[in-house]
Amino acid sequence: MFTDEMRERGQAEIRLNGVSAAGLHCLLEYAYTSRLSLNLANVQDVLAAAAHVQVLTVVEACSNYLQAQLDLDNCVDVATIAETYSLHGLRRRVYAFMSSHLHKLGKMADFQRLTVVQLLHLLSCDYPVDCSEGQVLLTVAGWLAHCPVERARHAPALLRALNLHEVPTPVLEHAARLPGLAEPLRAVQRALGVGRGPPAPPTGLVNSRGLELAVVKVGGFSIGGITNEITYYLPSAGRWRHLTTIPHVEQCNYGTAVLANQLYVIGGCFNQALQENIHPFGFRYNPHHNKWTTMAPMHRERCRFSLTVLAGLLYAVGGASEAADDGAAEDDSLCEAYNPATDTWTSMAGLPGARAQHGAAALEGLLYVAGGLEGERVLASCYAYSPAAAAWLPRAPMLTPRADHACVTHAGRLYVCGGWYEEEAGNTRVLADTVDCYDPRTDTWSVVTRVPTPRYHAGILVVGGRLYVVGGFHSDATFDRATGVIECYDLEAGRWGTEQPYPQDIWEHVCVPLYVPRCRDDMDVLAEAK
């Protein structure tokens, strides 16, 4: 500018439009000292100057500072700054923040300063929100009502960005009575066919925005040994990723369940000085906030037990313990139920007979427990617990005794898969190779299919009408007995298929369905050297 034939060469004064003296002062200070003093009063001036002269390290520092200072009072301004200076990382962070605080933000005056482009992006960016879709609809209605004349034309586009299928009918009817909203709402409803399906998010979710049902693998063993690592598979991503880690010493044989889309990991055992230690403590993971919390411990320590959700409670049944049964009859397994609303455990009727390494599932208001070990004996017996009667009711035994298997439910039936039993003649361990089905209406069992790769200590779950068998032991041989094979059986179509295998050979893990935010950027699970 000063040496070429440019106008500024001959000017006594040059104006840098959009760059303030305060901002340029900080840039000069940084250039000569490598020190940058940012605060809320100067960060925008510094960012404007740094963007103007392309000092990218300072631009990044300003972006990181704004992200660290993000709150409800400044998030709308930070969104505008991020868009003005094309700070894509900051923009993603601020819209994720606004989504996760949408209920409170929607009631603030600053929310009305969002432009229609910003509001449309907020509704379409696929981040989890902290309120129901009915509340999102009313929040949008409030934004439209703030300047009805200017904003009415944007109603159709905003309404199309909502998941109206999840809005309860009373809320839709209330919104239709609001000024200027009746006709565009009816038009969008007709176009989307709203009202033909159940107006609710999936069970356990306040809102399905930004979430996807994942297959989650909890802990277990691999060639590298025992792990507390939790990984997940999103169909949209098509690969296994790391999710979180159980906040406890490395352990196994705990109870695992999902209630209200929170993952519970309770009890289990760990090795200390070559001795197995069993504990009663539990932890709860919220995938929405990526946060673990502690919970009240069970009345007694347990491992190799079942943890099952029924009517909003968690039921811990049977298992091994270091303590005596605290007065229970020797032929009973102590059971207890956890209420998450009160964070308390309550003792319940004992299951007839000692039992560990069994399967359990809830079906039509009853808790079913099938198979397992009583001492050294593999069981085939099946019981159903009725909370109303506070009693265990005997049911038809399984077709084959099983231990280390899984019980799952689908379409009003109970299925058992995996596990092993012993031949009576030679006490040889045999893998159970069938998937058996129990019909509660007739109290009968039947064979549904045979597993292509029989195994035990596998992760077994049902997602979308498909039975998944993940990893496990397929042999009692000393070497090469573990696998990462994933097979799935379509319970409706009656056929087997295979999925991409888990990157590692795994066993003694648990698999559960859990809704996980799609916006996570986690590391992939890497294959282990064999």
From TrEMBL:
SMART domains: BACK, Kelch. Keywords: Kelch repeat, Repeat. One of its GO terms (biological process) is protein ubiquitination. CDD domains: BACK. It comes from the Eukaryota. Residues 75-177 form the BACK domain. Probable substrate-specific adapter of an E3 ubiquitin-protein ligase complex which mediates the ubiquitination and subsequent proteasomal degradation of target proteins. May have a role in synapse differentiation and growth. PANTHER family: KELCH-LIKE PROTEIN 32 (PTHR45632:SF3), LD33804P (PTHR45632). This is Kelch-like protein diablo. The lineage of its organism: Eukaryota, Metazoa, Ecdysozoa, Arthropoda, Crustacea. The gene is Klhl10.
